[in-house]
């Protein structure tokens, strides 16, 4: 997989008035504020007429009144990364960054994502779905221990538990059920943790260098993701060329299988015993904080944080415009 990337020179005036959407109402609000503030400052530093907008405190009516020519979505989680806001932007006719309504909704739902990947023979850990009526003994038999239990519609490791003993499962499920009505229980893969950033859409989608994540005691939790310097990152990841190409190929195929656009990030585990990669989930609006992994991968191929923001902003568009043109007889 060719990870060489180049950036073009963009005319800041060509973007018009830009809204940077961050904050929101999800459990990841604080992280989104950090991401959006970084993006806003980067765009302003390059002369873009960029303005903050917080859908968590401002209404869609206010968004429509702003007169934005395009928006950069720096929201994470519900109401920003799940297709709901994307649908509103389609209705308002405001071009936006990232994936469209369907890919955003599917990518946000880890269970649906895994179903699609399984059908496309993209390697992902075995799993079961759990609701309050599920026999937990059947889950233990099917997946064994340890296992990972998580809410399928949250991110940033929110609500996730590692279950090592049978008597820990119910408590872990109860925690996850506090976020979603169903829970994802997943086979635990022992090995090394990686992530792959992908830029572009369709046939133009390309993987950036792989990042290896080495967290304290293997615990890449919310605190170690965003607020400490104890986690180590290696980019490009120290992998042989063949495995690097395999992981990047799987990541791009997984991204395309969901219909993702613009940019995204695929999380991967490589099993220790046989170095086989397993894809975990996709992030269709990845973090852009000082600790975030997409900017790190971009720097490895000479793309600065500011240029990355410009490239993503340049990809903003309406995904349903062609369909609307067809309806109006213009296509």
TrEMBL record:
Ranges for domain ATP-grasp: 114-314
Entry cofactors: Mn(2+); Mg(2+)
Subcellular location(s) per record: Cytoplasm
Enzyme Commission code(s) on record: 6.3.2.4
Catalytic activity as recorded in UniProt: 2 D-alanine + ATP = D-alanyl-D-alanine + ADP + phosphate + H(+)
Pfam families, per the entry: Dala_Dala_lig_C (PF07478), Dala_Dala_lig_N (PF01820)
InterPro entries named in the record: ATP-grasp, ATP_grasp_subdomain_1, D-Ala_lig_Van_CS, D_ala_D_ala, Dala_Dala_lig_C, Dala_Dala_lig_N, PreATP-grasp_dom_sf
Pathway: Cell wall biogenesis; peptidoglycan biosynthesis
GO MF term (any one): ligase activity
Keywords: ATP-binding, Cell shape, Cell wall biogenesis/degradation, Cytoplasm, Ligase, Nucleotide-binding, Peptidoglycan synthesis
Origin: domain of life: Bacteria
Similarity comment text for this entry: Belongs to the D-alanine--D-alanine ligase family.
Function: Cell wall formation.
Protein name: D-alanine--D-alanine ligase
Gene name of the record: ddl
């Amino acid at each position: 997989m060719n990870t060489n990337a180049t950036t073009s020179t963009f005319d800041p005036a060509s973007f018009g008035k830009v809204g940077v959407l961050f904050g929101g109402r999800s459990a990841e609000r604080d992280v989104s504020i950090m991401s959006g503030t970084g993006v806003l400052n980067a765009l302003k530093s390059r002369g873009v007429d960029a303005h903050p907008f917080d859908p968590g405190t401002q209404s869609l009516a206010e968004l429509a009144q702003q007169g934005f020519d395009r928006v950069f979505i720096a929201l994470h989680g519900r109401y920003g990364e799940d297709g709901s806001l994307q649908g509103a932007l389609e209705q308002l006719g405001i071009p936006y960054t990232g994936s469209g309504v369907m890919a955003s909704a599917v990518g946000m739902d880890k269970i649906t994502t895994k179903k699609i990947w399984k059908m496309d023979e993209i390697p992902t850990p075995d799993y079961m779905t759990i609701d309050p009526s599920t026999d937990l003994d059947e889950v233990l038999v099917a997946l064994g221990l340890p296992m990972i239990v998580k809410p399928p519609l949250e991110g940033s490791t929110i609500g996730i538990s590692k279950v090592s003993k049978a008597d820990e499962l119910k408590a872990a499920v109860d925690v996850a059920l506090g976020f979603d009505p169903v829970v994802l229980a997943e086979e635990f893969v022992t090995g090394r943790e990686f992530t792959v950033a992908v830029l572009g859409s369709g046939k133009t989608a390309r993987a950036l260098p792989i990042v290896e994540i080495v967290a304290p005691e293997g615990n890449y939790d919310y605190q170690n993701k965003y607020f400490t310097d104890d986690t180590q990152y290696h980019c490009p990841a120290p992998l042989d060329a063949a495995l690097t190409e395999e992981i990047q190929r799987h990541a791009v195929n997984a991204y395309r299988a969901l219909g993702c656009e613009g940019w995204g990030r695929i999380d991967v585990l490589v099993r220790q015993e046989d170095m086989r990669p397993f894809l975990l989930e996709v992030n269709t609006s990845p973090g852009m904080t000082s600790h975030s992994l997409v900017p790190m991968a971009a720097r490895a191929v000479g793309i600065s944080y500011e240029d990355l923001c410009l490239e993503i902003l340049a990809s903003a568009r309406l995904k349903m415009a062609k369909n609307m043109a067809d309806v109006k007889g213009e296509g």
